[in-house]
Amino acid sequence: MTAGSVPRTAPRQTAPDQRSLRRRFHGVVLLAGVGFGLTAPFTALLVTALGGHPAWAAYVVASMGLSLLLVDVSGTRFVPRLESRAALTASMLVFGVGSLLSAVTTSWVVVGLARVLQGFGAALFMGGGVLLAVRLADEEEHGGAIGTFNAAWFAGVAFGPLGGGLVAATVPGADGLRLLFAVCAVVNVLGAVAAWRLLPRVPSRLRPRIGLPRGLGVRGARRWSVLVLAGLGQAVRSGLALTLIPLLGEQLGMGWVPLGTALFALAVADVSVMHFGTRWADRRGRRVPLALALAWGALVTAGLAAVGDPVLFTLGALAAGVTVGATWVLPVAMTVDLAADREPALAAYRIASDVGMLAGGLLAGAGIAAAGIDGALLGMAGLLLAGLVLALAVGETASRPTSAPPLEEPVPLPPIEQFAVLADNQDISLTPERLAQAHAAHTRYRADLERLRALPLPFTEPVTEPSTALAWIQQGGRP
């Protein structure tokens, strides 16, 4: 997420207070990540445990995309302008209420409605969390603040599958999953209390407004293709990581703890690729790593369709995490690469991602209904291959550094006598004291002048630095 202008930062505090405040904030983010991640890969399993068909489980998982899409389309000037502490508190309360509804119901339809409600909580948290991270940081630290926020968030999310499997295993059957959703509700309520008690109130200077986003500025086949790749990334996350892989583990008869361990392995690979893959892509470009991730994902997904052993399933889930992470972060980098204006481009990216989340679940459900889980996996492999063809057609989007033009020969430092000649040629009368001052000023800033001359700026014109210094002195040191 980004914005054209950074909202007002928190009131200035001493360095120890600021560090303590940031630690409390990151602790709240970590707790929220655990709360949001506990049930994410188990939602499809709760639907089937309550009697729903696996195809409907896929549709329920995808239903969160409805609320995310609604917020991203109509709330681009609402969520970022909310008071940050209130936004984070409300987000976790809303998500917790959704988890509680899933815990107490015996109908998978209610689970679907609760999933939509949780989407509103997730949208509030991501919008408010990133902005509070920025507001608590100095201007020169915004990039690092967002990176630390993401690290704390995804560390909590990655722990979720393992913790969820351990909790669900304490009670057999659907009751274990319902207990897990109840625990998730409690964790989110605790997170909301922590956010309200530990975080500062940091309002925005702008009034929240609900309305459609301004022009997204998506023009050209390459930009539209990148948005399709962004949607594909969310379709892989929704359809593969959160639906087909958990349902396949259930089909293999895996218990909650082994299944949670396999999903934890997927999450660790996912988060690791998101964290380290972008750095590698910044150095090597986007096309090659994205193409490799898509090809790898197609191979792994097709292999999962033939897996009948829990150990191989766990290894396959770990391998699939590479593609899940890469297809999330690389398209957003490509979107920024091609953007003339980043803010509307990222708004378009978020909308494309929401559509992809919906489409991924719908396609997974359709595949399950038509050919079962194994057939749906093969269909997902085909979708990844189509993404590979599109990625190769888009080509490289990262700008390559151009070689700097050869540096001009440095202008020799003129002696003080030459300053006198230059002054005389320009009809400038200087006392010896002023002449010495002009020469000293030029000598002092000589290194800076040479660095300026070395800059490859085509609009700069050559200047006679000694003459400029003389004129400046003649005016009494005023511009």
From TrEMBL:
Keywords: Cell membrane, Membrane, Transmembrane, Transmembrane helix, Transport. InterPro entries: MFS, MFS_dom, MFS_trans_sf, MFS_Transporters. It is a multi-pass membrane protein. Residues 21-399 form the Major facilitator superfamily (MFS) profile domain. Its main location: membrane. The keyword Translocase does not apply. It is found in: Cell membrane. The keyword Nucleotide-binding does not apply. SUPFAM superfamilies: MFS general substrate transporter. The chain crosses the membrane at residues 28-50, 56-74, 86-110, 116-137, 149-171, 177-199, 224-249, 255-276, 288-307, 313-336, 348-370, 376-395. It holds the Pfam family MFS_1. PANTHER family: RESISTANCE PROTEIN MDTM, PUTATIVE-RELATED-RELATED. This is MFS transporter. It comes from Pseudonocardia aurantiaca.
